[in-house]
Amino acid sequence: MEVKKAPKLASQFWPEFIRKKVRLVVLTQITITLVFGLVLIFIASATNSLLWIWVISFLLLPTQLTIAVLILISVTRPTRDLLAAIIKVTGEQPTLPIPNPNTTKNEQTGFRDALQTIYELSVARDQEQPIGDQKKSIAADALDMTNCGFIALDKDRKVIYANKTAPIRTDTNGEKVIDLIFNGNDTLNAWLDTCKDESVHDEHVWTRIPDHLPNEEGRRFFDVIASYHKDSATETVLTLIDRTGAYVVDEENLDFISFAAHELRGPITVIKGYLDVLEDELSDVLTDDQPELFHRLVVSSNRLSGYIDNILNTSRYDRRHLKMNLSEDTVAAIYDTISDDMKLRAGAQNRLLTVAFPNELPTVAADRASIGEVLGNLIDNAIKYSNEGGVIKVTAKTNGDFVDISVEDNGIGMPESVVSQLFQKFYRSHRSRETVAGSGIGLYISKAIVESHGGKISVRSEDGHGSTFTVSLPIYATVADKLKAGDNSNEGLINEGNGWIKNHSMYRS
Q1: Which of 340, 401, 438, 492 fits a disulfide with 482 by CB distance 3.0 to 4.6 angstroms?
Q2: What does the pLDDT average to over 11-25?
Q3: Is 183 in a helix, a strand, or coil?
């Protein structure tokens, strides 16, 4: 069986190379000397001066050898330096002096470029990333095995890496794009625009972000963590935690509740109608507390109808179809539609409700029933979370191109950690779940309605010192032309993209 010799290291090449070259030069010089000696012998036999000729020959031999060695060193130095550079970049133990490409001699002879090329090729090799399934790094293989999605974007926001779990699709141009649906204006692109103008390093978190619309197969939900590093090769890195198991139950419950609410809407409408008829027909015969009891029945039926509308609106908003017609209206007229109900609720809970709207307030662009629903939700929350005998103040003022309607209470307030999550669907703090009944969708749908008006909803709160919710609606004069051009549709007031309405949102804490 033939035994193959192990390949020699690059560092073993130089000793053997130099030995061969020395032997070659020495043998060459000896050969030349012998030839020269034979010639001298021939001359000596002819001249009878043999001794003198041999003396001269031996005196010349060391000189010849010294000159040959110096020539050898000079000729082979570039080869030695090249080999030393190769040994250095291959990571072997150096046995030769490491050549410096920036010496004067190397710059003058042009040898500097050769050495520099070797060093630069080494750096390029170390920085090169393998491409293809067979050359993936260990880190990439490990990321592909996780349940979390990882996406890297360059400074142009193009996907330069995505593991197998990441929600990625290929668009019509053949480019990979992130397949997520961000609701409102708190989107990835909006955040990156802000980072580009204001930040060097930043992080942001989104929760409950779906990759498909409702009723589409394979719908997943993610909590998304984004890290931004300005001008880095991977400027944005997204970590996507698959929370489908935790969120899908809520989504399925919402679908069921929406179906049930739709079925209940008809009977509730009938009940409301009969109550209105009976209240009118029996108004002359009712005595003592009976009119008040009838009034409470009407208020309760209206409230139940409002809850059903909330659920149905939430379902529509989640599918991003919350479209409505807006008209010119006053804040006072909108509030009048819920005034009696709000007074009754406040009185039943021993709260004092004060309402003050300036006469000079400009008109707003609004859908009266929807904004009434929003104000009802905010006032109802203020009643729930304020203290016994507390005061709820409802005020309004002009703020640029908007009218700000504020609902203020002096109740239990909220910490900042709760405020930042407040407008998310089904969100309820641990404290509110224990003390106050509710579904967690009232503020979510209020946000949807206000943003669908081209407005904003915000909250200012301090733990233990009450909260102030503010609804900002556009002044009618500032949007009249857009509304008239769109037959009073709200689509002209909100951004559109890919056929879906995208709403604006603002949070203050």
Answers
A1: 492
A2: 66
A3: coil
CA–CA separation, 504 vs 166, rounded Å? 27
Whole-angstrom Cα distance, residue 174 to residue 331? 51
- What does the alpha-carbon distance between residue 215 and residue 322 come to, in Å, rounded to a whole number? 17
Using alpha carbons only, how large is the chain's radius of gyration in Å? 43
- Check residue 499 and give its pLDDT: 30
- Is the pTM higher than 0.70? no
β-strand partners of 210:
221
Contact 165, 147 (CB under 8 A): yes
pLDDT of residue 469: 92
Reply yes or no on whether the pLDDT at 434 is more than 50.
Answer: no
For residue 411, the Cα-to-chain-centroid distance in whole angstroms is 36
Residue 388 has pLDDT above 90, yes or no: no
Q: What is the distance in angstroms between the CA of the first residue and the CA of the last residue of the chain?
A: 82
Q: By C-alpha distance, which of 89, 116, 88 is closest to 102?
A: 116
Write out the DSSP string of 352-385: EEEEE--TTPPPEEE-HHHHHHHHHHHHHHHHHH
What phi and psi values does residue 60 have, to the nearest 5 degrees?
Answer: -80, -25
Percent pLDDT > 70 in the chain is 68
What secondary structure letter does DSSP report for 7? P
Question: Which residues, other chains included, contact 330 with Cβ-Cβ below 8 Å and sequence gap of 6+?
Answer: 361, 363, 364
Helix axis angle for 442-452 and 368-385, nearest 10°, is: 150
d(CA 35, CA 29): 10
Q: How would you classify the pairing of strands 495-497 and 500-502?
A: antiparallel
| DSSP track, 188-254 | HHHHHHHHHHH-SEEEEEEEEEESS-TT-TT--EEEEEEEEETT-TT-EEEEEEE-HHHHHHHHHHH
